[in-house]
Amino acid sequence: MGDVREGIRSREAIVEAARALTIATGWDGVRMGAVARAAGVSRQTVYNEFGTKAGLAEALARWEVDRFVGAVRALLNAHGDDVRAAAHATISHTLVEAANDPLIKAVLTSTRGGSDELLPYLTTRSELVLTEATEVLLEWADRVLPGADRDAVAFATDSVVRLVISHIVLPGAPVAQTAAALADLAVFLLAHAVTRGDGTG
């Protein structure tokens, strides 16, 4: 058990070091040797844990997604069965946190001067974000809207998550306005799922 715990601590230290270096230099400027030194491990340990820099990028992306999804779950649960309040609080929090998150800022900024392996986790390879976030939303919807049509709920949650991601990558209107509009859309789509579930829609 001691070796397992030590391995987990080592892996976490490496990811945290990679995060700090990405914020400081952008992902393109991160080197595996620098990550190893910052984490207090050997360079070989970093390669043993993650294989390649791309593997480390995936681990870092998953780390961030898990952190955001944990906050989403807590906010949804805090609002009980008030669908709009839960949707608005969750969307608003996510947009504000993303706008202020130094790692996301570093990723979005660095891509303007080059290419960044982390950006696809918000765009062309966003399956990780979509899967994790929609699973949490589906769990919540199953609890607060038990009679809703499952396919319609899945479409609603997937659509809202995709729109939130797009507003993180390319913000448009002020966060308060965007959050309100997306919360209204979530309510509309979920209401449709309910009517389909009870056979009236």
UniProtKB/TrEMBL annotation:
Keyword annotations from UniProtKB, A to Z: DNA-binding, Transcription, Transcription regulation
Gene3D superfamilies: Tetracycline Repressor, domain 2
SUPFAM superfamilies the record matches: Homeodomain-like
Segments forming domain HTH tetR-type: 8-68
Superkingdom to which the source organism belongs: Bacteria
Transmembrane segments: none
Start-end of DNA-binding region: 31-50
Protein name, per record: Transcriptional regulator, TetR family
Native organism: Micromonospora echinofusca
